[in-house]
Write a structure and sequence with these properties.
By secondary structure, the chain is mostly helical. The chain is built from two helices and no strands.
Length: 65
């Protein structure tokens, strides 16, 4: 695909927003009552990184980026 730079930036921003949503849900699911929130934040951060990496790899394989 021959997309303009603005469209490519918007696609990456959408990937980042989806990754943030996945990270928030993962952190919320991993948090247990009474436990420190640090572990949930680390779990969410790992989920964000994994989801963002997966999204960008799929976009690269589809030749969008």
């Amino acid at each position: 695909m021959n997309l303009s730079l603005g469209v490519k930036v918007l696609v990456v921003v959408v990937c980042a927003l989806v990754s943030v949503i996945v990270a928030m849900v993962a952190a919320w699911l991993s948090h247990t009552p009474g436990a420190p929130a640090g572990q949930a934040v680390l779990y969410g951060g790992g989920s964000f990184g994994g989801c963002m990496l997966l999204c960008l790899a799929v976009l690269k394989a589809l030749k969008v980026l």
